[in-house]
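Thread: "does anyone have the structure for this chain?"

Original post by V.I.:
We have the sequence but no experimental structure in hand. Need at least a predicted one for the grant figures.
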Amino acid sequence: PHTPHSFSPHFLDFHLDHNFLPSHPKKKEKKNKKEQGFPELPLSWLFSVTMGKGNYVSSVHGLGVFVAVVLLMQRGEATTFTVGGSKGWTVPPDNSPLYNQWAEKMRFQIGDSLLFVYPAGSDSVVRVTKEDYSNCNTNAALEKYTDGHTEFKLNQSGPYYFISGNKDNCLKNEKLV
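Reply from O.Q.:
Generated one for you, tokens below.
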């Protein structure tokens, strides 16, 4: 039995590793010193630092603060990014790969949205496969939007391919990965 006087931080290691935090890999891969990054420390190290001389309440409080900080760092508010900024979704000047250059500078997260603003009736946004993106194929759309104010939510990681529904515009680099 574990009482505050005989409390073992190793007992909590098991429960925390399996319930809240990712478990450590069974086999450690050998890496050269430049690739090691941060040293791996057992969770009991956190308890021994926060517990001092075995104060159970301090250790639980310290762990709670640690978990809260980690969760807050990972969970931010979703952001809506306006594609093309104030100019919106239009043919870029000089047929430059403007949208992909813009996207490379951004950091998108699951839950963020892309807002496409364009003249309804004369342009559209089409989500396509990688192959259809490369060929500006507007006939095999996964999704097509024509309302002039399209907000697309990024609900999974990985690439998304968007082209103008006007093939001539797509050929002039009105497209985005």
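V.I.: this helps a lot. The radius of gyration is 25 Å.
O.Q.: and Residues 127 and 137 are 10 Å apart (CA to CA).
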